[in-house]
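Retro notes, item 3 of 5
We never archived the inputs for the adenosine-5'-diphosphate complex last cycle. Fixing that now. Sequence and ligand:
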Amino acid sequence: MWPIPLRSLPYATLSFKMKVTLLFVLCLVVPSVFLLLLAIRGIENDQALAEQTLLSEHRALANTIVAAVESEIVLIEEVLARLIQDLPGHDDSGRDETVAPATASGLIDEVFALKQDDWEFPFARLLYGTQANEPRAGPPSRSPGLARLIGAAEENEFQLKNYARAGELYRTALNRTDDDDARTDLLMRVARVEVRQGALMGAQKTYAVVAKRHAQNRLPGGLPGGVAARLELVRLSLRTDIAAQAGRLLQELYEELLACTWTLNRPQFRFVQSEMGALATALKDSFVTAQTGVLGIIDELRRTADSLASRTDHLLQIRAAVRPVILKATRAEAVNGISRRRLVIAGDDGQRLLLIAESATREGHRVQVVGAVLNQAELTGRVLPKIIAGLSLSENSTLRIAHPNGTGILGAAPGPDSRRTVAVPFSGNFPPWAIEFYQNDPQFFDQLLSSRRSFYVYALILVMLALIFGAIMTTRMMTREMELARLKSDFVSTVSHEFRSPLTSIRQLSEMLHSGRVVSEVRRRQYYNVILEQSERLSLLVGNILDLAKIDERRLTLDRIDVDMADLLRGVVFRVRKHGGGDDIPIALQIKDPLPRVFVDPGAITHIMDNLIDNAIKYSGSSPHVSVTARTDDGELLITVEDRGIGIPEEETRKIFERFYRGGDEFTRRVKGTGLGLSLVRDLVHAHNGTVQVASEPGVGSTFTVRLPLETGQENKRG
Ligand code: ADP
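Structure as it came back at the time:
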């Protein structure tokens, strides 16, 4: 049993509208919100799960890359460890079997060796600047007497332009010294003066002597005499137009330069290189085409010298960068007497990756160190791309290898919508980069719809749609219901009003007649007519209401028979004319051609005509002019009811056939009516498969046209 009586619940006190709203909220809004919450929770769970899977997938891929790179590095370390045994100078070295490790792995850029703290690049030729053959520098030592002599010779050579005297003085000085370097210098000066004097053959001879006998002696600038003299010889050959000789001499000079005949430092080498370059260009300009063979050889040698020089530069840079680090670095754990180390060295031109193998120390000293500089271009351009190509990255994932400072090493920079999932360093942080994975998350709605719980979302959308549809339908229904309720109450008041006035006049007139107070025969007749007319009106009203009720309940059946329309129309018009009150109402009837008999319900047609003629009279004011016509037209029977009344505004012509609709005009309001007549006319005409139309102009009049199909009972039965 209910503890509280149901009626006392607040629900019972709510209005109908509120109840409907409450029901809506309970039946649709609450489940929708519940579904929405479920969907959101489901999606959140999904997301967390997907995130977990993604993370472990990315981590596994990163580990694969790390392992692959690690195995490459270990391979090189093994090559280095083997190499340390093979290097010359090692206890049991097999020098001849030394294999250039560059062939073992493309990843190795350079290999260097450090023996007892001395440097060696066992697999490269350094054109200049190795520690062992660095030229000694410093000003030449001269005795005061010699210096005076040379000073006097220079004065004659440069200021007095007395070359013969200058030559003499240089030669005297030459005879007074035993120092090889000083003699070389003086011989060069003698040759120079000879050139200035124009004694080219003599000069050539003098330079040849220097080139031959004083090749390794140093000139004051530190340049070996041999190089300087041979440069001058080429220059002289060019001057004397012995181009073939110049070409040969230059070729020889290049060959010896590449064979490291002289020990040069970097500036010296660069100087000689540029001098030779200039000579080669001059030679090209002066050479006859038939001898271009030598030119080709010289070009080739020149290119070789250029590339070897830049390689030498590279190696010297490595040496400069690596040396202090290696000397300082503490030993790593040794395996089988050989320890391995990995170093990252920052240089001006970026970082270098180094792998180092050291053999065990002997009495506290390093015995051997072998190192390899890794070729980063090879690592990032071939090795890593190959490893990455073998991985299967999930959709929307991208991979990048980057330096800790954010510089990308490999792979595209992540877009603004990407987020980083994992960043895994290489093993031992070597190379010192991180493997980063990025995820480009799909748009919110894509994610929502692709989620495994998208069922909830779809269900939710469906419910929402149902909710909106239901809300619209209910609103429409409620509006219609309320409109209907209003119309019904209007109808009741209109109809009771419509009934009351004829009933009142009938009752009053009959009372007067009954009491015998009306003596005048004319007056009595008038009263009877009014009573008749009012009862006609009442019966029309009752007829209308009954017919509409039948139509509403779909009970209306037509009793069709073959009817003579002309007779029927004449009857209706006659009756209305006569019962229109005192005087006859002027209703013209025009029937064109003999009308055929038609298969209709005569009662319904009479009803239609009564309503149309009644309206024509009602809406024509005090002096109605009504005309009714009938004719056949193109297989149809056309009946028109025309008046010269108030007319109907254009915008109302369609509405007047609606039930309960009454014209908005002040005059119409004063005329009695229920708004049912035309709606009944339309329904009855439609029941006969006909149509009804109105043509009207306010202030001029209206014409209602009824079209009925011309069919007889015989045809109908056949049909
Ligand atoms: P009622 O006449 O009872 O108001 P009807 O359905 O017969 O209802 O007519 C609906 C409306 O159409 C009328 O209120 C009136 O405004 C307009 N109407 C009908 N017939 C005529 C006419 N012959 N002339 C002018 N207005 C008309």
